[in-house]
Design a protein that fits this description.
The chain is α+β, with helices and mostly antiparallel strands. The protein contains seven helices and 15 strands. A hairpin with a 5-residue loop joins strand 1 and strand 2. Helix 2 runs antiparallel to helix 3. Bound molecules: 6-O-phosphono-alpha-D-fructofuranose (P6P).
Length: 333
Amino acid sequence: MATGLTLSEQFFRDQAASGASGDLSTVLNRISLAARMLASEIMRAGFVGKLGLTGDSNVQGEQVRQLDIISNDIVSQVMDHAPMIAGIGSEELEDVYAMPGSEHGKYVLTIDPLDGSGNVDVDGAMGTIFGIYRRPEERSGLPADVADFLQPGRDLVAAGYVLYGPSTMFVYTAGGSVHGFTLDRSIGTFFLTHPSIRIPEGAGTYAVNEANESEWDDRTRDMVATFRRQQSRCGPRQARYSGALAADVHRILLRGGVFMYPPTSSRPEGKLRLLYENAPLAFLISHAGGAATDGRRDILDITPTELHQRTPLYIGSSGDVAEVQRLLGPGRD
Ligand code: P6P
């Protein structure tokens, strides 16, 4: 059985250090509860026939899997008991879910409840990605709506991800260091296993779906080829790509490197969503010494104009992200 600092104890240390009221700790503990519930669902999905497609598609136009619905329901149910959360912006919901009776909640939650769910029926890694914003003062008392969410990632108060892999990990920052916790399933408790994570420089992997090459512009094609031919200034890189953003970013956070989802001819704004994928991960990685850009701007400086806005994403070691930017050149329209 694991021992050491638990996730809840770390939340309260963060709270004591910042003199916070405890509301944020409560929200983070609720996310941890949802993560443990979802980890259990994922482990049993194969036995209880919860894999596979529902036959519907979501606001993203993507095929919905049973576990996508289950994960979103778990998040909504768990957050129903967190009156400090006024509303949820979820990948699975077209509009903001305004929490009944929580109009005075101090925070709003952005979340991709089960990122990479396409991996579920091949037993691949998946993740939950989340971000917590403070509501604008003037909106307190009103039902949450999209206006609460149109904030740049730099204004996040906390962000992180849960990784459902061979082990279940909870990796987050509340504005300070990035800490990683591993779930001891036997007692349902997350224990600190990766304190104060700093992303390595000059090592690691590059992650990109090279099957999209025919849809990239020339600069993108040449930039990726430079990494592939081991000719970037960053030195030799192995290629690793899992189809689950949280899993690829986790590898890069621990070993260094860069994840890329460039714009394509069919998706000129990129595939990944700013509010509940790119910005929370950019906030986290920046607190581990890394960087994230859309190819022109720091992800953290982009103020969304809509809930499901997409941007290109290049995220990882600062030196690698700078090299991507150099190779893409400044003059991108
Ligand atoms: P592609 C999963 O669908 C996801 O949103 C991310 O988790 C992942 O990084 C990306 O899309 C994979 O997209 O087009 O390479 O299959």
